[in-house]
Amino acid sequence: MKNHKSPAPEFETPMMRAYMAHRPALVDYASKVVGNREQAEDIVQEAWLTLSRRGAENDVREPLGYLRTTVRNLAIDALRQRVRESRLMGGDLESAARTAVDGQANPEKTAFVRRDLACVMGVLRSLPERQRVAIEMYRFADYKLREIADHLGISVSLAHVLIADGLAACTTRCGIGRGNFS
Q1: d(CA 174, CA 117)
Q2: Is the domain of 94 the same as that of 174?
Q3: Are the beta carbons of 76 and 33 closer than 8 angstroms?
């Protein structure tokens, strides 16, 4: 009887061993960059998914260094995205919505916030359904780009473009960038 060796399971690759052995440290590293452990967990997982999809596992001499570099790049990208969105939205849309509902701000600010919120909701209704759903999932339900992409059957980069373009439309049409939500 011949001894047939089956291909090594995925968890036996050097990249997977490095990932499993150093995952907590990678999460700590990403967390220091983005300031949020939950987002850091997502970044580390996204790094693994990205690398495993590329088939880069067999071409890498230093798996841990490659993973750290990928995690760092994704964490910096996430941080840049957060800064961009903050600039686009002029502040936190959720806190503006709470202010409009609870009425704790002065009446003038409440009126401005309600007007801006109504404008944003009008812009969202005017967007194509896929783009509107992507923005609502991201901004109102805290879904990650990967989850949105999977739900809509699109790439993560397209999900990002849909959201960024939609938020830019809100900024342009509603003048939110002028600080109305700060």
Answers
A1: 9
A2: yes
A3: yes
Give the C-alpha separation, 167 to 165, whole Å: 6
For the record, the structure tokens of 71 come out as 């995690």
Cα 130 to Cα 133: distance, rounded to the nearest angstrom: 5
Residue that is last in its domain, among 87, 114, 145: 87
* CB of 22 closer than 8 Å to CB of 65: no
Question: Do 55 and 106 belong together in one domain?
Answer: no
Predicted TM-score of the model (pTM): 0.45
pLDDT digits (tens, 9 = 90+) for 73-120: 888 888 777 766 655 555 545 555 555 455 455 677 667 777 878 888
Angle at 46 between CA 45 and CA 47, to 5 degrees: 90
Token reading at 114: 């309600």
Q: What CA dihedral angle connects 28, 34, 36 and 41, to 10 degrees? A: -50
Residue 30 included in any domain: yes
Tens digits of residue pLDDT in 50-70: 777 766 556 677 878 888 888
Say which CATH number the domain at 57 has: 1.10.1740
